[in-house]
Specification:
Blueprint (H helix, E strand, L loop, with lengths): L1 E7 L15 H14 L3 E5 L5 H13 L4 E7 L2 H10 L6 E8 L2 H8 L3 H18 L3 E6 L6 H13 L4 E6 L6 H14 L7 E6 L6 H11 L3 E4 L13 H10 L1 H4 L1 E3 L6 H12 L16 E2 L2 H9 L18 E2 L7 H11 L5 H17 L5 H8 L7
Bound molecules: 3-methyl-2-oxobutanoic acid and zinc ion (ZN).
Length: 385
Amino acid sequence: MKTIKIFDTTLRDGEQSPGCSMNLSEKIEVAKQLELLKVDVIEAGFAVSSPGDFKSVETIAKAIKDCSVASLSRSVKKDIDASYEALRQAAAPRIHVFLATSPLHMQYKLKMTEEQVLEHIRESVAYARSLVPDVEFSAEDASRSDYAFLARAVQTAVDAGAGTINLPDTVGYVLPQEMQAMIEYVRQHVDGIENVDISVHCHNDLGMAVANSLASVGAGATQVECTVNGIGERAGNASLEEIVMAIHTRRALMDADTNINTKQLYRTSRLLSKIIGVSIPPNKAVVGANAFAHESGIHQHGVLAKRETYEIMTPESIGLTTNKMVLGKHSGRHAFDDFLKELGYQLMPEELDAAFAQFKELCDKKKEVTEYDVEALVAQKAAKV
Ligand code: KIV
Ligand code: ZN
């Protein structure tokens, strides 16, 4: 079974999303939690971008012992020097160099020819490699690049010493089969590619980031870049908890798993949400408040009889203590009775029928029926046992 590396970029790409910025002590708290979660790489920031970012990369590099710590750099000496300085005290420093390879970016943003781009890749990767043993090269906008040129760019980075080649879907544009085709092309056309990690970095503009990342793993990617709660530029990055639990839950089919301590997923998600003040949608996969909640009577009955009927993973596996039976208008008599017993009430069958009918009427009037509402309904009918 393959081990897929998890490269967390919550503190770099994630922090680039509006309203998600963090101060130094908050970033350290998140980095420590990522270390507990056992991610393989923490991208701590973009050292050259501001004195604040430099300081946070430097402080995190010093504080983290069990993960590699990366700093992003454009393909220029000044950026690579800043990353190197900030990472000096890291136990396992990684310099992450990037340059765009798509015609659009090369012509309008970089104003460089293909040959100039290749030369920059060669020089910057070799320079970074002269400073640290672990260098990642990202071909920004790889998914919209011409595959033949992309393969030349990747070959240049591999020959210059990059140990990880990242192929981002920078604008979240492609479909899973296109990610797959790109990776297969690169694997077939780059000498020595089998000796490096192929990484993917998918954005979520079309809601495809997790699916694209998983398809990439199927095609041979051995590292996935992602963020906690999927925060990131525009519609965000691929969500770490979804990727990890998808691989873990379907590990037999994927013949792969990660090093992640999945029991820390819920805590990590809540910590980030609390720090940045961005709440998690209740229906968010894996960590949303409703991810392990059952309201419909049929589902509640099924789960009470055998959890696997409606639960494909256990709440305990992500660090929750239990699933949740929510009482609402879709709940059945069976779940209502169980709920009463939990509150300490034992009703005779005809009392239960009457209370259940009243409960259903209340559900039509109120969005959420609480345990206090239920207690009020049955308090006169039954003695507490
Ligand atoms: O989305 C992207 O292409 C990036 C790179 C800098 C890795 O964030
Ligand atoms: Zn990105």
